[in-house]
Amino acid sequence: MNKLNKPVFKDYSAFKEMSSNRRLKHYSVLNGQDAFILNAYKEYIKNKGFLNVNSCGTLSGSIAEALKYYYKEPVKCISIIDEIRAANANSLCSMCGSMHSGTLDHVLPKESYPEFAVFTKNLVPACKCNTFKSTTISNAAGHRMLHPYFDNVLCERLIRAEFTNLGQTPTIDVKIIIDPRSSDFNNVKYHLDNVVIKNDIKGYLSQQWESFYLYPELIVRGLNKSLFTYDDALNLLIRELSLLDEKHKGKNNWNSVFVAGLIHPDVIEWILYELHLGDRETSGRLK
């Protein structure tokens, strides 16, 4: 769940080179499809990555299968597909914000939109949420998923953890924090419900809280018994959040979501009370 720079790559030129190469397996299928693909790529950019199925026309089954084949087995002129995957193997997931990546996601699913199977602007670094995400990218009301290359709202902090019933096993939820009147709000909600929640962000936050409760400094450096005032704790959490944002190059990674949830008056007051109970060491670790 992160804004990314679009790949700098001449997709149409690469497709033209691939489709005109007589030595390639699917030359007879793709040759002559240049105009269709050029139009489809232009429409994708014009609509910032979201189109209705078959809005650019319908591909035959053989052409669709050829494009999906070259996604799995990129030829030299589209080897950038493997480069994008390798370059982002250790980065966070741009779709859900988890701390994992290693694969690529077709924002418009290749089964429904095969014309974009090898289009670099449709390929984003992702994690296993790629397998959980439905082929449905929007709902009847027009609310849709966010696109890491086109939706600038992803530069903002969109979500935070919400902790209530504080204690060893609190109630944990994920809260959208942009203005409900924002034109992006419904898309953020759709993306949260259909991508982020499905990849079990709540399970991750629960695991983080378990570590945090037992030993706060495992999650937030400096959060120990040396803190006495609300402002000291608040400033420490704000600094930690800023460092996490910078480390992960975005504000909606799951570690930042967790710490952002700690920056709430009720939670900070609970943390200070909990740190100074008699059953904790000077470091804050539970005895």
Automatic annotation (TrEMBL):
UniProt protein name: Phage-related protein
